[in-house]
Amino acid sequence: MPATDLIAACWTSAGACDARPDTFDDRSPLPIARRVAAVAAAGFTGFGIRRGDLLRVEADPGFAVLRRMLDDHGLRILELEFLEGWFLPAGPARAASDRARADFLRAAGALGARHLKIGADFSGGSFKPEPMAPHLAELARQAADAGTRVALEPMPFTNVRTPLQGLELIELVDHPAAGLCIDIWHVERVGVPVASLASIPGRRIVAVELDDAPREPEQDLLPDTFAGRRFPGEGDFDVAGFVAAIRATGFDGAFGVEMLSTAFRSLPVEEATRRAYETAARFVLAG
Q: What is the rounded CA–CA span in Å between residue 137 and residue 141?
């Protein structure tokens, strides 16, 4: 049966041009209550949130209040992001990652989060799954203890560039709490044919994300992913083929919508989330 749940990934409701992943302070300038209300009114049944906003909410009004807020608005799926550095050796960077990990797992347990998105090595380098596998296995065990899962997102500017590389790492770990996050932007930009995704076992997929963009990047890939995305169906990506391939894997979970662009962030959050839902729903809920 086609998925009926759509998740508004964190940036889809963060709002304002200064709320971007590449800034020192990635917290949304919008009140959490306004974001939740806008996401629900648009039709979404899932909500995404970043660590900075999680910590702010934990301090005031508290996780229990946020959970009630989500429930009252029919937002039954919660997505957390984004953990980096979980694979690093001991040192200051790993210590910072471990602090973020503790925050995410605490929030996941308190809020009943469905999954936590994680990234690979943004410094690049070759793909070597064996050294990363024990670290991911440990993280997966901890996530399971917190009642959640981790979703590794392959990206063209990390050492895990393609979904098949991500799958190799996930299968090496072979833990039910570890799977893939497959975002059409990264699939298209790394040059992987979307039809090839159908070979991935659906049980290895935790999260899927929709968006769109022009065929050719308008700038370097990393800044382009923050500034140049389009609503699903308003660019050149094969969104319909991507959805069909994901469904062919046997994946029957929710689809996320991750909108990141300068133009998108200039919209009021109510309009932004409504357009994000309506454009994605044409592909996901059409039958």
A: 6
141 assigned to some structural domain: yes
- CATH code where residue 170 lies: 3.20.20.150
CA atoms of 182 and 246, how far apart (whole Å): 9
Residue type, 140: A
Predicted confidence (pLDDT) per residue in 163-190, tens digit: 999 999 999 999 999 999 999 999 999 9
Owner of token pair 């596998």:
133
Beta bridge partners of 207: 181
Residue 206 counted as domain residue: yes
On whether residue 263 sits in a domain, the answer given is no
Q: How many domains does the chain have?
A: 1
- Which residue shows structure tokens 């039954």? 76
Contact of 150 with 118, CB cutoff 8 Å: yes
Q: For 57-77, what is each residue's pLDDT tens digit?
A: 999 999 999 999 999 999 999
> Rounded to a whole number, what is the distance in angstroms from the first to the last CA of the chain?
9
- Report the alpha-carbon distance of residue 138 to residue 141 in Å, rounded: 5
155 and 123 Cβ atoms separated by less than 8 Å: no
Asked if 13 contacts 47 with a C-beta cutoff of 8 angstroms, the reply is yes
Is position 265 within any domain? no
Coil, helix or strand at residue 117: strand
The identity of residue 50, as a single letter, is: R
User: What amino acid is encoded at 80 in this protein?
Assistant: L
Is this model's pTM higher than 0.85 or not? yes
SS3 100: helix
Round to whole Å and give the CA distance between 174 and 158. 22
Q: What number of residues does the chain have?
A: 287
Q: Which structural domain, as residue segments, surrounds residue 21?
A: 6-255+271-284
Cα 188 from Cα 90, distance rounded (Å) = 35
